Protein 1
Amino acid sequence: MSDFEPKIVAYCCNFCAFAAADLAGAMRIQYPPNVRIILLPCTGKVDAIVLMKAFEDGADGVFVAGCIEGECHFMEGNLRAKKRVAYVKRLLEEIGTNPQRVEMFNLSSAMGGRFAEIVEEMTQIVKEIGPVCEDRQKEPQKQ
Ligand code: FES
């Protein structure tokens, strides 16, 4: 079994996911320490360049966690983020990287347990995929 510990970057909305992460901490819910949380005023703030830069800077997995659809405090920020995450998935596929490395989640500030599950899920998925730097090596050789 590999001892690979992935680096996961989480872009979290102030109104929901960040508060949920805080709640998870207050409730002493355990989750993997692999995640680095970046606080955003709204997930509408993230764009494809920010997400791709996280990979360039060494992240093995990235997720965006925003308010429940229809409950974004800035109207459609989370819907825009959802489209950008889908776009980044396509970009990752094009460059030979597993698109499961990036995901979008929606939750409320009361979902501390769900936040911990999300971190657990992403950590497991990325552990199975392996380090991002090995993706290109797994590609079949074209001749
Ligand atoms: Fe939470 Fe927009 S305010 S995703």
Protein 2
Amino acid sequence: MRFNIAIDGPSAAGKSTIADLLAEKLGYNHLDTGAMYRAVAYKAIKQNIPFDEEDKIVEMIDNMDLEMMADGRVILDKEDISDSIRTDEISMGASNVSKLKGCRTALVAMQQRICKDGGYILDGRDIGTVVLKDAPVKIYMVASPEARAQRRMLQNQEKGLEADYETILEDIKKRDYQDMHREISPLTKAEDAVEIDTSDMTIDEVVERVLEIIAEKTGA
Ligand code: DC
């Protein structure tokens, strides 16, 4: 039987990279739930809806056509927004709309629908605590803000994006605070999640560690 795997943790802890590699190894699908909050922020900006206008944001979500493709692309109202949602503005916007109860309720329902038959790795902030409360494998991935800023800086340099270390570090700390202190579903480790501190680990080491945890928890 194919089960679901939950990966949570703060921004830039390596969740998405690890989820992609695991999905490939296991023949599972990866659902990047952060990208869904990013899509909401993207559309809100496009439609000039302030991030705190909950009713309007929820109405907008009800009318949006969001396709999370198996290859990781994000298609919003038939437009490929995969790259456009990776800016600093959208990162902060996603963190802002993710505070809204109505936004969370709608996106959590979508996520649960997508992975209802198993075979999914979901990464986000509330997967182990809310979306997949019964997942047999829950990982809580952390790394120091400095290690995360360093990684994000290198990624940004590769992509030709803004790459000032201090700015990135500040942004990471601000988003951590906001994601951990919001009222609804704040980022927190599920009681039955296994924590991995990736600060001094290579990507391969993290993948190996997660595969060990999967074997321990499921015998797979
Ligand atoms: O994973 P990410 O950096 O792409 O997520 C962007 C923002 O979306 C993050 O700052 C908080 C929010 N988010 C959330 O509240 N719940 C999730 N499951 C995923 C993301």
